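Sharing in case it's useful to others searching the archive later.

Someone asked me privately for the predicted structure of ABC transporter permease, so I'm posting the question and my answer publicly. Question first, with the sequence:
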Amino acid sequence: MSDVVEVKDEVKKKRRKSEGRKSLGILLSLIILCAIISVLSPRFLTIDNLRNVTSQATVSAIVSIGLFLAILTGGIDLSVGSILALSIMMMGIFQVKMGINSFLSMLLCLGVGSLMGLINGLLLTKLKLPHPFISTMGTQKIARGLSLAVTAAAPISGFAVPVQFLGSRTIGPVPASVLLVIVLYVIMFLFLTHTATGRYIYAVGGNVEASRLSGINVDRVLCIVYTISGFMAALAGIVLVGRVNAAYPLAGQDYETDAIAAVIIGGSSFSGGVGKIYNTVIGVLIIAVLRNGLNLLNVDSAWQTVAIGVVIILAVYLDVIRQKKAVISK
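And my answer, the predicted structure tokens:
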């Protein structure tokens, strides 16, 4: 019996070392990228620019939490950008058009996002669709169409100060949006490591059938994951509205691709069950720094899109290599 315990302890130690090396590698990638851009553009390391990078990364960081959970279960959520747009357009209708209280309007915005996320989960679990790629691609189109239809594609501006707070205000020297991201990532880390539901999410991503046989309500876990993803998309939308003081129906376009890239760069695997939430925020910063650096170097926006596409392909390729190494080591 003691031999079995020793073997398990040894496996855990090796896993921790492997995870530690992975986290260090991701962090070093960010540091090297920052060093290269700072050499190419002296403006990069200025206080104003670094504050701008972190502020711009906050929306993507919040969206990436939902994508991280979806990918952790072996799924994906392509609808987050469209859910963001629909949620903020409804918030604009509630507050600006109907005169509803700002705080209630924000709660309703979060409710719309959560509801769309729950619908994603129900489509996947109740209709037994083969993969969330299908269900979330469908809701992506539905949510985007609704966001355009509710105001005939017209933007809404003139939000009250409470709505603008998270996107444009500071608490001391730190932007409120940055503090929000820190709090959200700490909460999500504790949720995944110290709650039964968090452990179930990892288990479902590792092996769905084994999770079912062990008594885990897989459908419930998946519905929770996609509801949280919708909630995070709506919350990111509130931060975005606070920054520009306007809601527009085409908001959130391509946010899902940046978030997917950030999650995979952060070491998560498309096969599910592998990933750490704190590495995801490093992945978000890598994408944000890359975009900012390309802007500082006056790279055309078309080539910036090409660069992000290359990064996504490389990130997925690295995931394939990691999976092969994991199989060989077993």
